[in-house]
Amino acid sequence: MIIAVDGPTASGKGTIAKALAEHFGLPVLDTGLLYRAVGYQTQLNHGDPDKAADALVACDFPDALLDDPALRYESTGSLASRASVHPAVRRALFQRQVDFANQPGGAVLDGRDIGTVIAPHADAKLFVTASAEERARRRHAEMLGRGVEIGYDAVLADVRARDARDTGRADAPLLRADDAMLLDTSAMDRDAAIAAAIAFVTERT
Ligand code: C5P
């Protein structure tokens, strides 16, 4: 069973993907982390995102890098969003994601183009979203909780900028697949969103 979970930044898709993986006993891949690693590595080398992606694929994305807390920073998300516009970066990361999706027994993947490009044949597809204001509110609260001092307006501006880049790029833009269930979590708490996702996947499989 392959489950594809796509959606914009701070929509809750990562939380939902992890909960689905646990419920159905499947491995899960947060594909944003791969793009974050590329963005981060590009910045460290003052360089070229295409080369950073190739180098990371060649050394198989070391755990030490994927576990680095800096990958979770909002600033790294922005770097990832910039790097992910490059078709050569997307090509470099493609096979790793396809192999993960098609492993025996199935998998859950979350990202932007899982249901459209990486696993168009997925058994269940979810498109998780929420209003930009609500996503900014959640991201802002989470950042304040981590001790990051930032105003709500700056977070909202970043959410909107990332949405624009992710939906506006030519190669594999953020797009709801025709057969994806739309899960708008704007007015839902975490548990309600997870319950709705599990109910949908159970019905589909
Ligand atoms: O999901 P997350 O916020 O960690 O992703 C960081 C960035 O990586 C996104 O803003 C997006 O530009 C890019 N990304 C992508 N395709 C994916 C996953 C993430 O382009 N499948």
From TrEMBL:
Locations listed in the record: Cytoplasm
Entry keywords, A to Z: ATP-binding, Cytoplasm, Kinase, Nucleotide-binding, Transferase
EC class: transferase
Catalytic activity line of the entry: CMP + ATP = CDP + ADP; dCMP + ATP = dCDP + ADP
Ligand binding (ATP): 7-15
Enzyme Commission number(s) from the entry: 2.7.4.25
Recorded GO CC terms: cytoplasm
MF terms in GO: ATP binding; CMP kinase activity; dCMP kinase activity
GO biological process: pyrimidine nucleotide metabolic process
Domain Cytidylate kinase: 3-199
Similarity annotation: Belongs to the cytidylate kinase family. Type 1 subfamily.
Protein name according to UniProt: Cytidylate kinase
Gene of this entry: cmk
